[in-house]
UniProtKB/TrEMBL annotation, chain A:
GO terms for cellular component: plasma membrane. One of its GO terms (molecular function) is transmembrane transporter activity. The complex comprises the extracytoplasmic solute receptor protein and the two transmembrane proteins. This is TRAP transporter large permease protein. It is found in: Cell inner membrane. Belongs to the TRAP transporter large permease family. Part of the tripartite ATP-independent periplasmic (TRAP) transport system. Keywords: Cell inner membrane, Cell membrane, Membrane, Transmembrane, Transmembrane helix, Transport. It is a multi-pass membrane protein. Residues 10-419 form the TRAP C4-dicarboxylate transport system permease DctM subunit domain. It holds the Pfam family DctM.
TrEMBL record, chain C:
It comes from Variibacter gotjawalensis. The gene is yiaM_2. Residues 28-151 form the Tripartite ATP-independent periplasmic transporters DctQ component domain. This is TRAP transporter small permease protein. One of its GO terms (molecular function) is transmembrane transporter activity. The lineage of its organism: Bacteria, Pseudomonadati, Pseudomonadota, Alphaproteobacteria, Hyphomicrobiales. Keywords: Cell inner membrane, Cell membrane, Membrane, Transmembrane, Transmembrane helix, Transport. Its main location: membrane. It is found in: Cell inner membrane. GO terms for biological process: C4-dicarboxylate transport.
């Protein structure tokens, strides 16, 4: 029935009318509660508020705050001096560093949103200062964060494994190669764009060993922060979410006592920036949660899935179709909630058609994490754009070449299950 | 509204392969058959409509939805029912049925209805909860000092504290990595959930501690239930009871399968757990809830005689 | 009294940021405390994660009200920007009315829900969930005030440092 789709249409209309995105989503979701009538209006309030009751999302303020403190304390500056000495002679050096850093961070953190916040805060402004377009900086920092969802640990893969009854260990190992593939694709696009736009290398030739050595020694304390995170997580001192809070405290200690360049009087201003950035993102996630309830209640995603299966029973064709559908759906709904709604619907269909659940899980999580950078709704897009003050239309134009490359990776992952499966098969033996 | 189609949404937080979901499907099918498809029950597994506690609140607020919940969650509204979630209260589903047939329980049901919850089903056995760790746990001393994952729930926290363990709250979705990375040393759940979350990839010993004998409830909004035609009300209640029995049967049957599956996966089972010793050390848990009616444990155990 | 007035005015003006920053500190410290107690005390602090998520809700909704003051809620002006000026004015008036109506709705139903939640306890601390929903209703009431202040010409500036400088 058309009336079931009305809130979705209303959302797009309100977007066009310049209603702030968070409130456009919220009002569209509210229209469902008003039209449908079988759910009390109080529940709308509940859905908005309980979206904050998510432990993993705490990583957003943690890493925004840690990034803010690292900057105030001159930690970021020292890391960038080191990076400059290392790869400053490459074209588009800062953007390439962003992807490499995201790949390394991917092994530490489990949430793409948190990584988007960290990358945007730390590298975004540096790129703007080096005359990269702010929209490009927002795009590369948010796209690079997608890698985190594939390289273990990953919250998305854990959720998928639980709902679909798939081995989380196999999923984790399965994510590594696709994650690296995605990094390669992003770096290729970056190289082409950087060359075309003349995003210059910072110097003509390599900085030289003595300069590199000095930069390295000066950055030792700064480098101890990721080491501290890795050691803490690997030896189980804290969970990936808790790592955020501990990183904040550790960063304060390094800034105050190792570099002596952080003053406690600086903290209120950094904290104020953190709450403004966090809440403008989170209020959108809250509204998206109420909107996701409408989609689930009206069973809109399964309606689309059923329609899809009626089109073909060829597994490869169906997988490609599912990817296309998810890309469309993914423009409007956020990764984790989409994952929760869609996994139980697709998995029985796949089992019938003989598609490996690990293979599908990686494709699904990749796809729905890419949804985080497709306008008009996407967590990582919101985060990076907010930090760098980039309007959505500029972001949309800049993200297109990266989206094209990531869709190519998706198609490759879909057509060739072995890209995903050979590593888990190697580690765990062939799956059942 | 007699001839009209009645549509009820039935949400829960479990996966679609578990006995709880299969029993809900069984219920939906039978209700549709007996009402000539007049009553349609749509299932929403895997937290599609939100976590269990949120769906309970929806029901209380009057939304037309059912949920798979348990006495622990319902005790937020009628504290006394929480006793049914207590450690080592009953040993078998048959004993639990006796409690459900008692006057004490009838009174609890009335109080739940006043809070907005009509229970369509109360007798579905969810399973014994057991402990997965790196070492065998036969007696309370074996678990002393061990960091055990617990859900954010007073009953669990008090129970493991009373055993001398160190309960730590970790979200269920983070349990696997918490075990893998040694944030916690042990976790606990019915065998089906342990298997579903693949926790045996991280720990090798399951001790059959049976610290909780867990049952589920299916609440619906009491006012909404009262608006349904009398024949539909009766069918829902009757089919609910049948579905509960079906769930118990499936759970017991699968428990044996799971033990076999775990053994094939190289898991060691500890079967000679000193249940009496555990029952003894966990008795103080029953006095940790100030909102309960005094002597509640005695009252409930009295219904077993 | 006269001495206190500017301080009071400053506090009222910056109320959201003050509360949200305190909430942020509570989030960081309680999560850290949860980690630390796992190693140094006999019993890990089971309440830490619950307090953290409660404080997180305060952070988000007080912060969202602050974002109204600083006009930090992003919107898409692609289309409206291209309309004739008179039509732009009409659209903006419609938006103001729509947003204020939404804030009034959230205040009213948030308050009702908070009252209903007086007897609904949180899982570990057993605090009434009114501590979650009450402040949220208050934040939306505050958004009405801030939005009206803004429409009547009051201006808040983000720190000058914020736009130019970098993290
Ligand atoms: Na990761
Ligand atoms: Na999107």
């Amino acid at each position: 029935m058309l009336v079931d789709w009305l809130p979705g249409i209303l959302m797009l209309v309100l977007f066009a009318l310049e209603v702030p995105i968070a409130f456009a989503i919220a009002i569209a979701a509210l229209s469902f509660f008003l039209i449908d009538g079988s759910v009390p209006l109080n529940i709308f309030v509940q859905k908005m508020v309980t979206a904050t009751d998510s432990y993993p999302l705490l990583a957003i303020p943690f890493f925004v705050l840690a990034g803010g403190i690292m900057n105030k304390a001159g930690i970021t500056a020292r890391l960038l001096v080191l990076a400059d000495a290392l790869v400053g002679h490459l074209t588009g050096a800062l953007a390439q560093m962003c992807t490499v850093l995201a790949t390394l961070l991917g092994g530490l953190t489990a949430s793409s949103s948190a990584d988007a916040a960290m990358l945007a805060k730390i590298l975004g402004p540096e790129m703007v200062r080096a005359n990269y377009s702010p929209a490009f900086a927002a795009v590369i920092t948010s796209c690079a964060a997608i890698i985190t969802a594939l390289i273990p640990p990953s919250i998305g893969l854990i959720i998928y494994g639980y709902i679909s009854d798939t081995s989380i260990g196999r999923l984790f190992v399965g994510g590594i190669v696709p994650g690296l593939l995605l990094a390669g694709a992003l770096m290729t696009v970056t190289a082409v764009i950087a060359k075309k736009r003349g995003y210059l290398p910072r110097r003509r030739e390599f900085a030289g060993a003595p300069a590199l050595g000095r930069a390295f020694v000066d950055a030792l304390w700064a480098l101890s922060i990721p080491v501290f995170i890795v050691v803490g997580i690997r030896y189980g001192i804290f969970t990936p979410t808790e790592a955020g809070a501990i990183t904040v405290l550790y960063t304060i200690l390094v800034g105050r006592f190792a570099y002596r360049s952080l003053y406690f009087a600086d903290l209120p201003r950094v904290m104020k920036e953190t709450v403004l950035d966090t809440s403008s993102v989170m209020i959108m996630i809250c509204a998206a949660s109420a909107f996701g309830f409408y989609l689930a209640w009206e069973r809109i995603p399964p309606q689309m899935a059923n329609w899809l299966v009626s089109l073909t029973t060829n597994p490869i064709l169906l997988l490609l179709l599912i990817n296309a559908l998810l890309i469309v759906l993914g423009t409007a709904i956020e990764g984790t909630s989409a994952l929760i709604i869609l996994t139980p619907i697709f998995v029985p269909i796949l089992a019938k058609l003989g598609i490996d659940p690990v293979h599908f899980g990686i494709v699904l999580v990749t796809n729905l994490t890419i949804a985080g950078v497709t306008p008009p709704v996407g967590q990582m897009m919101f985060i990076s754009s907010q930090v760098l003050r980039v309007p959505m239309e500029d972001y949309t134009i800049e993200v297109l070449p990266f989206l094209a490359a990531m869709c190519l990776v998706l198609v490759a992952l879909t057509l060739f299950p072995q890209i995903t499966l050979f590593l888990p098969d190697l580690v765990y033996g062939r799956g059942p | 509204a007699t001839a009209q189609e009645i549509r009820i949404r039935f949400a829960h937080s479990l996966s679609a392969t578990e006995p709880a979901h299969l029993a809900a499907e069984f219920f939906a099918k039978n209700v549709a058959a007996r009402t000539n498809n007049r009553v349609q029950i749509q299932l929403f597994p895997g937290e599609q409509l939100g976590p269990g506690k949120e769906v309970n609140e929806m029901i209380r607020q009057g939304a037309n939805v059912m949920n798979i919940t348990d006495p622990g969650y319902l005790s937020d509204f009628v504290p006394d029912i929480g006793v049914l979630n207590g450690p080592y209260l009953v040993k078998t589903p048959q004993e639990y049925e006796k409690i459900l047939a008692s006057d004490w329980y009838k009174d609890v049901e009335r109080r739940l209805e006043r809070s907005g919850f009509k229970l369509i089903m109360a007798n579905g056995f969810f399973g014994y909860r057991h402990l997965i760790a790196d070492k065998p746990v036969r007696k309370p001393e074996d678990i002393a000092g061990m960091t055990v994952r617990a859900p954010p729930n007073t009953m669990w926290i008090e129970t493991f504290k009373s055993m001398g363990a160190r309960p730590t709250t970790v979200q269920w979705s983070e349990v696997y990595s918490a075990l893998q990375q040694n944030v916690v040393q042990a976790a606990e759940a019915p065998l089906g959930s342990l298997w579903g979350s693949k926790l045996h990839e991280t720990r090798k010993v399951i001790s059959l501690t049976r610290h909780f004998t867990a049952f589920t409830n299916w609440p619906i909004n009491a006012k909404y239930f009262a608006t349904l035609p009398a024949d539909v009300q009766q069918i829902l209640i009757e089919e609910g009871k049948k579905a509960g029995a079906e769930m118990t049967r499936l759970t017991l049957e699968l428990e044996k399968d799971y033990i076999q599956k775990f053994k094939t996966a190289g898991i060691t089972f500890v079967e000679d757990v000193d249940l009496d010793a555990f029952q003894k050390v966990t008795t103080p848990v029953y006095s940790a809830f100030p909102k309960w009616t005094p002597k509640l444990q005695e009252t409930v155990l009295g219904t077993l005689k | 009294m006269e001495d206190n007035t500017p301080v009071l005015k400053w506090v009222l003006d910056q109320l959201e940021e003050l509360v949200a920053c305190i909430a942020l500190a509570v989030v960081v410290l309680s999560v850290s405390w949860g980690v630390i107690t796992r190693y140094i005390t006999a019993q890990p602090a089971a309440w830490a994660s619950e307090l953290a998520t409660l404080a997180f809700a305060w952070l988000v909704f007080f912060g969202a009200s602050a974002c109204i003051k600083y006009r930090l809620h992003p919107s898409i002006d692609m289309l409206v920007r291209r309309l004739p000026v008179s039509l732009q004015t009409t659209v903006r008036l419609f938006n103001h009315a729509l947003l204020l109506a939404f804030f009034v709705f959230m205040t009213w139903f948030g308050t009702r829900f908070a009252i209903d939640a007086l007897d609904n306890p949180s899982p570990v601390l057993r605090w009434p969930l009114a501590w979650l929903y009450g402040p949220v209703a208050f934040c939306f009431a505050l958004m009405i005030v801030r939005y009206c202040q803004m429409l009547s010409g009051k201006v808040w500036h983000v720190d000058a440092e914020r736009e130019t400088q970098v993290i």
